[in-house]
Structure formats: structure tokens, C-alpha cells
Amino acid sequence: MSSVTLDHVYKRFGNAKGVEDVHIHIESGEFFTFLGPSGCGKTTTLRMIAGFYFPTEGQIRFGSQEVTALPPHKRNTGMVFQNYALFPHMTVFENIAFGLQVRKINKTDTKERALRIMKLVRLEGYGDRRIDQLSGGQQQRVALARALVIEPQILLLDEPLSNLDAKLREETRFEIKRLQLELGITTIYVTHDQAEAMSMSDRIMVMQSGEVQQIGTPHEIYHHPVNRFVASFIGETNLWEGTVVGIEGDEVKVRIASGHVLSGLKQNASPRARLTEGETITMSIRPESVQESTVTEGANVVSGSVEMSEFTGACVNYTTMVGQEQLRSMSINLGRPVKQRGDSIGLHIPKESIYFAG
Ligand code: ATP
């Protein structure tokens, strides 16, 4: 297994920007995800690691070995493509064994390794099937087996679940994570699906328009988004602007448009947030942290009028107008009557749950 370092890597396509200044160190054995919307540069970055693209600037290293200009077959990476890129006229066994034959591994070892990997991805007994006789989920596992059978140092996965239906996607993400933990293989995963990224990764790199926005654990990215883009791309959140009106010890007081003053904690500010009096600041408040209050006034309680309510059994979700601003909340159902559109409501926003995104 190997670590992967991208040292100030840039990729331009003519005059067009691909990615800009990607600077990361992925630890050996880490599950690392590139996350972002379409066109943000995830695939370009992955392709540079695989060797399908060469950087315009910067260096790529696997461990201490520089690989920046090496072609793909000299890098010892295994890759799973979005469309799997399997050979449709070959059997499952032939597809999996192909990479070993190319590497001139003898027949006995090829068979032994292919069978072992088929067992690992739960494809035992499918060796003689043709690819077009398999379900989407089974094809996905063949693609995974084909990438793993060459015993790569690094596994690269480019949106490997996007062709599967929702239920299978969830099952398969669990399978991939199981395999990765079992093999301890350094894995780089590309997706635009934040739930996938959050549930599988040790760390996530969030990208937008070819630029890295934030690198962190799922917990850090969710709870300490560095800017509005990250806060709104990862899960649901309320983004409110306010003016810093006071700082007292560990607490920051912020006045919002409705006139309410909220207290937050200094420690919940991203490095980009300017916590000086008079500054306008963006707050990220997750709906699940906002709870219905029995009062309409008090510390960190805002009052408003219910615009929409939704009863899901376990939860009561409200969209409330607080002045001109919307506040979405997701409260655990405590058996209180559900408020309806037009009812007034008090909502408590705990100070620990306000994040200053800058
Ligand atoms: P998607 O999720 O849609 O695959 P992505 O985040 O993987 O998107 P990339 O495919 O890496 O994004 O593209 C990043 C940028 O680089 C885009 O603006 C894209 O148009 C551009 N780009 C990618 N490959 C090429 C190429 N071969 N020639 C020219 N521009 C390219």
C-alpha cells in the first residue's frame, strides 16, 4: 500500500481550467474521496493519479516515488470506471484474469488469484457467465474484482455506483467499504453524492470549479464548513447572514435581520470567518439542531410563523418564517400537537450548533 501526494498540481486544457493547485497528502490505507458537483475537476484529478492525464504543473508521488510522467501501466493502480468498461464478449473469469495475462502471470497463478478475488467480491460460481448475462450490481463487482486482482498499491474508483438503483447503491457502498477495510488498500473515490462520501470516507476533499474548497473528515466537513458552498453542498443547512454585535469571552453575538440576537461559540468559526464587531457573517445552522421551544422568547430562541409543517412519524419538520428569513427545523417527535401553517412558533437554536462559515 502506498500514500499519494499531489504537490501543487494544475491541469489546463488549452486555455480552459481543469483543476488548480491541488495540494493533498493521502495516507497509506486511507479511504479518500473527491466530492463536488459535475465539472468541478474530480475526474481530472483522478485521471492524473491514474496516469491518463499528465499535470500541466506540479508533482505526483506514490510514497516517495515520483510518478508524475509515468504512463498508467507503470503505476500499479487499479481503476473502476463509471461505466465499468468490461469486455462484453468475455466471461467473468476472462475479464478478471485479463490484467494478469497481460502481466504474463502463469496460468496456475492466474486461476488461483482470479478465483480468490471472485470469492472476495462474492462472485463465486459466476466465472463462466458472460458479462451481458449479469445484473448491474454483478457487473460492478466484476469491475471491482478486475481492478483488485492485479494487487494494486492504490485503488481508484470513479463514480462506481452511479449506474445502480438506490437500494443496490447503498448495499454496494457497504460492500466496497468492507473490502477496503479487509484489504487495507489506499482508496481514492470520486463522487458527486454527499451521502456516499460521508458514509465511506476517512477524509473528503470538496471541490468546486476546479478548486479545492475544503479537506477534512466527514465530521469536520459537516460541522465546520469553511464557506457557504461547502455548508450547502453537504447535507441540508440554513444559511443566515448577520452582523457581529459583540464578543464576550468565548461567545459571539450576532444580530439577524429579524432583530433577534443569537449567541454562538468562537470555536465554531472557520479560519475565514471575521469575528470583529460590525462584520457581516454567514452562519450555518443544521435543521436537526433547531428544536421547537415551549417559549417564544429567551436565549437563542427565535419566533416566527410556520410556513409548512411535515410529520414523518419520528420527526416533525417545520419551515418557519423568522422575519423575512426561512428557517428549516427537524425536531424529534415528542408527541406535541403538530403546528400548522400560520401558527406562531418558538424555535431554540443551541449556541453550540451555530457555525460561522465566513
Ligand atoms: P463529472 O462529475 O461531470 O464527471 P468532474 O468533477 O469529474 O465532473 P472533470 O471531468 O474533471 O469534472 O472536468 C473539470 C473541468 O475540466 C471541466 O470544466 C471540464 O469541461 C474540463 N475538462 C475535462 N476534461 C477535458 C478535456 N479532455 N478537454 C477539455 N476540457 C476538459
From TrEMBL:
InterPro entries according to UniProt: AAA+_ATPase (IPR003593), ABC_SmlMolc_Importer (IPR050093), ABC_transporter-like_ATP-bd (IPR003439), ABC_transporter-like_CS (IPR017871), Mo/tungstate-bd_C_term_dom (IPR008995), P-loop_NTPase (IPR027417), Transp-assoc_OB_typ2 (IPR013611)
Keywords: ATP-binding, Nucleotide-binding, Transport
Record-linked Pfam families: ABC_tran (PF00005), TOBE_2 (PF08402)
GO CC terms, sorted: ATP-binding cassette (ABC) transporter complex
Record-annotated ABC transporter domain positions: 4-234
PANTHER family, sorted: SPERMIDINE/PUTRESCINE IMPORT ATP-BINDING PROTEIN POTA (PTHR42781), SPERMIDINE_PUTRESCINE IMPORT ATP-BINDING PROTEIN POTA (PTHR42781:SF4)
Record-given protein name: Spermidine/putrescine ABC transporter ATP-binding protein
